[in-house]
Design a protein that fits this description.
The chain is of the alpha+beta class. The protein has one domain. The chain contains two helices and four strands. The protein has a two-stranded antiparallel ribbon with strand order 1-2. A hairpin with a 6-residue loop joins strand 1 and strand 2 (25-26).
Length: 83
């Protein structure tokens, strides 16, 4: 979460993040990811040892439309084939 300036941390949807599986830049914008980044950055800022680090994001989505549930997790087929 640290930037090029050691005194500045970046978290949330406008910061760069990488995918957990592919290790490539990810455009996933999830509150859970931003919250994890914030905890790691806050711990680093105050030089606290944080038990859980942040190793990247995994796109996990779910929603209901009427009585039908839709969900997805992981990477696209294209990304999987290219790995």
């Amino acid at each position: 979460m640290r930037t090029e300036n050691i005194d500045i941390f970046a978290v949330g949807d406008y910061s760069a993040r990488r995918g957990f599986i592919t290790r490539t830049p990810s455009k996933v914008m999830l509150a859970s990811t931003s919250a994890s980044e914030g905890r790691v950055a806050g711990s680093s800022l105050f030089k606290l040892k944080y038990i859980k680090g942040f190793n990247g994001t995994i796109a996990i989505f779910s929603t209901m439309v009427g009585c039908t549930a839709f969900s997805s997790a992981g990477i696209t087929e294209e990304d999987a084939v290219n790995r």
